[in-house]
Amino acid sequence: MERGTKPHWSPGWLPEAQWLQLELARDDVAAVDDEAAACFPLVTVHNDEGAVLRRRCWGLQWLQFVGMSWGEARDLLSGVARRLERSMYRYGGVGIAAPQVGLSLRAVCLRMGVQEQAARTVFALEPQILWRSASCREGREGCLSVPGLSGIVRRNEALRVLYLGLDGEHHELLVEGFDAVVWQHELDHLDGVLYLDRVQGEPVAELADEDDGA
């Protein structure tokens, strides 16, 4: 598919803003000198675009609907992954979900092993939780899309997650502790759920030394 040529979709299926963000993702990030230009703009609850944070994201079936082959889709999604990762680091998060940059797409980028100083980045498409531990933990969370606030949230201590990678294969992971918290926070975003919906008590002004947002 030639760059700048819009695929055909039914009215309302793929909004203009979504297409423009996907076009941005097709640029070669490595060729962009300006760090800000290599990132997606961040969507917050205070932006005009903030409504996307409250919607359930579309699955990858829309790529087939607009006539993309897996090869074309993988090239496009690779661009999304690169820009999501750049955006996550630029905005200071340990994770970021596609709707946080205005994309209604079931995709997240996360840094795993941060607290063990063995961080690695995972880009996950169509992620889902297969199993949750009965044991839970409480911790303070913030969010890149809800700046200036944080609150105590109860999360499952461990998860088994399944996701599709850019290699076209499904991957299954057992995640525990802080990694499990990040996964739950980011997957909530894909269903239009913010940590504010799960916070115990009232959120408070965020302190400088609190955990990174996601």
Number of helical runs?
Answer: 4
Distance between the termini: 33 Å
Write out the strand line-up for the largest beta sheet, numbering strands in chain order: 1-2-3-6-7
Which percent bin holds the helix content? 10-25%
Low-confidence stretches: 1-13, 29-33
Quickly give the structural class: alpha+beta
Task: Round the Cα radius of gyration to an integer and report it.
Answer: 17 Å
The overall pLDDT average reads 84
* SSE ordering: HHHEEEEEEEHE
Taken from the alpha-carbon principal axes, the silhouette is globular
Query: What percentage of the residues does DSSP assign to strands (E)?
Result: 25-35%
Largest sheet: number of strands, sense, barrel closure: 5 strands, antiparallel
- Per DSSP E runs of 2 or more residues, the count of β-strands stands at 8
Question: Your description of this structure?
Answer:
This protein has 214 residues and is an alpha+beta fold. Helix content is 24%, strand content 27%. The chain contains four helices and eight strands. The chain has helices at residues 16-25, 61-65, 70-91, 177-190; strands at 95-97, 107-112, 120-132, 136-142, 149-156, 158-164, 170-176, 199-205. It has a five-stranded antiparallel beta sheet. A three-stranded antiparallel beta sheet has the order 4-5-8. Helix 1 crosses helix 3 (70-91). The longest helix has 22 residues, at 70-91. The two termini are 33 Å apart.
